[in-house]
TrEMBL record:
Residues 10-62, 63-113 form the Myb-like domain. The keyword Repeat applies. It comes from Solanum verrucosum. Keywords: DNA-binding, Nucleus, Repeat, Transcription, Transcription regulation. This is Uncharacterized protein. It is found in: Nucleus.
DNA sequence: AACCGTTCCAACCGCAAACGG
DNA sequence: CCCGTTTGCGGTTGGAACGGT
């Protein structure tokens, strides 16, 4: 009896993917009787599901006001902007995006943005065991990423455009500066040295930066990919980076 | 065609907050 | 205030789909 879990002695709950029949039962029931109690409603609707499963299915997939399809540029911008200010408060971010669910935004972040945005996750320890796990995970190597003109919590500000040579900078997860360099570095060797897919190396390129576009920077992704990014603030920068990366499928 | 690794997302789980008697 | 129940949240995972060899 795969996928069935006995809840009490007599009844069982189905788990796993929802069938179209189950979807229709849930839709029909809610359309007729509205949502009154998630935990009691499944048996009245003829569903062998937990209330929790029904709620999730409705909120994340069946609700008629859900927006389907890929995120628009405006939506991506909001996600990035909100994530910069709120961190992993997905439900709060979802409130700014009508028709999108917290789960959808969370998935979108993990699949499309995480490697570029780094992490701002605020993990709240729920137990001593959990706190210990967090402590251990924090001992891992720091996030390394770079961004032009970024202002971190300590008002550290970077300006790549005034540099006369290739530059890079590494941050930890709190945007504390770990290391800077203005030398002509072999960027590839830095990437290989750290073995971290999340690395983004930014290099200023004075030749390509004109006076009318002072915040233009060239993004060196690897030996085969270079992208120009023209952004004056961090949100626009990450948005441009997301779009560039998406185009290049990195 | 078969296999294998990767990506993506629907759905799960545990926990905490909110609710109500 | 207490305590049991319900709802909501965020992290995690199973597996389908896809791409490469």
């Amino acid at each position: 009896m795969a996928g069935l879990v006995f809840q009490h002695q007599m009844d069982y709950v189905k788990k796993g993917a929802w069938s179209t029949e189950e979807d229709q039962k849930l839709i029909d029931y809610i359309m007729q009787y509205r949502i009154w109690n998630w935990s009691h409603m499944p048996k009245f609707a003829g569903l062998s599901r937990t209330g929790k499963s029904c709620r999730l299915r409705w909120i994340n997939y069946l609700r008629p006001d859900l927006k389907k399809g890929p995120f628009s540029i405006e939506e991506v911008e909001i996600v990035i902007r909100m994530y910069q200010s709120l961190g992993n408060r997905w439900s709060a971010i979802a409130k700014e995006l009508p028709g999108r669910t917290d789960n959808e935004i969370k998935n979108f972040y993990h699949t499309h943005l995480k490697k570029h945005l780094g992490t701002k996750d605020e993990v709240k320890p729920k137990s001593r065991k959990k706190a210990k796990q967090i402590e251990m995970s924090n001992q891992k190597k720091p996030l390394i990423t770079t961004c032009p003109n970024i202002e971190g919590p300590n008002d550290q500000s970077l300006d790549f455009t005034n540099s006369s040579s290739s530059s890079y900078i590494t941050f930890d997860e709190n945007y504390e500066i770990l290391e800077t360099s203005n030398q002509e570095n072999d960027v590839t060797s830095i990437v290989n040295q750290v073995h971290d897919d999340n690395i983004v190396i930014l290099e200023s390129n004075p030749e390509s930066s004109t006076s009318s576009s002072p915040s233009s920077v060239d993004l060196h992704i690897n030996d085969f990919m270079d992208v120009s990014v023209h952004s004056s603030n961090v949100v626009d920068f990450w948005l441009d980076l997301y779009l560039a990366a998406d185009n290049l499928k990195i």
